[in-house]
Amino acid sequence: LSGYNVEDYWKLLDETAVVINTSRWETFCCAMFEAKAKGVPVIYKKNLHSGRFLDNRLQVEYNAKAYSKALLDLLSDKDTLQRESVLSREYALENASLEKMRDSWARIYNEV
Q: Is residue 46 within 8 Å of residue 62, measured between CB atoms?
């Protein structure tokens, strides 16, 4: 975000319905967690996180057809989009809050 005003970024996410991550290898994508923290559903490659996170709802096979189907399914049903927005926010709170990250780092440091 170098050169960006963080408030502008949050405002942009406020206007975002869905984030699509097409990365094939990125295992911890901050943009995905930032979007989820704002309650924006994220569509991404199945097993991108090697099974570390139990968020299988919007994981898709790595092909254009699977991505487009997931996107169209979300955008064609406002109730589903709203439900996924709530679940995205809950997911971020449960898996990527500052407290969760602090606790996971503390466990690592204690083990080392």
A: yes
In one-letter notation, the amino acid at residue 90 is E
For residue 42, the cross-strand partners are 19
DSSP line for 42-68 = EEEETTTTTT-S---TTEE-SSHHHHH
Contact residues for 56 (Cβ-Cβ < 8 A; gap 6+): 46
pTM of the model: 0.79
Contacts of 57 (CB under 8 A, 6+ apart): 84, 87
CB 1, CB 64: distance < 8 Å: no
Distance CA 46, CA 72 (A): 18
DSSP, res 7: H
* Per-residue pLDDT at 50 exceeds 60: no
Residues 6+ apart with CB under 8 A from 29: 21, 23, 44, 48
